[in-house]
Amino acid sequence: MIEIVVGVLAAVGAGWLLRRKHRARTAAGPVPGIPCMVRVPAGEGRWRAGRVYGDQGAARWVPGRGAPVALPGARATGIRVPSMKEGISINPGSRIVTCSYDGGGSIEIAVMPLDVRELLESVPQAES
Question: I need a surface site. Which of 39, 49, 55, 84 has the fewest CB within 10 A?
Fold first, then answer.
């Protein structure tokens, strides 16, 4: 009987903490930027988590750890779905936007399908 009471109290306490955390997150408002995974240069290296920001006139990628990477004159050159191998590292339901920017650099940005339009507003598509 005591175990049941302790279990119920633990469930109530956990529910209270989760509800408190949820209210704090909703009160803070939306987080700016587009959550993504990035591979620099395109086709090489490993995928790193971060956010893409399109404010202040130029797009930039801010990794979870490390210095921000400016993307001057960035243009989206292609959109594709991840391969089976890439789907292990990133979400297999995401879309990969390949971009090139001034200086001959290239970058691949993986975002969820609902975020592609917002990303293409920050990094416009190249003229074909």
Answer: 84
- Respond yes or no on whether the N-terminal peptide bond of residue 72 is cis (omega within 30° of 0): no
**What one-letter code names the amino acid at 95?**
R
Single-letter amino acid code for the residue at 85: K
| Cα–Cα distance for residue pair 45/27, rounded to 1 Å | 38
Residues 101-110 have pLDDT tens digits of 887 778 899 9
pTM above 0.70, yes or no: yes
Of 65, 35, 45, 33, the residue nearest 106 (C-alpha): 45
Q: Classify 108 as helix, strand or coil.
A: strand
- Contact (Cβ atoms closer than 8 angstroms) between residue 126 and residue 74: no
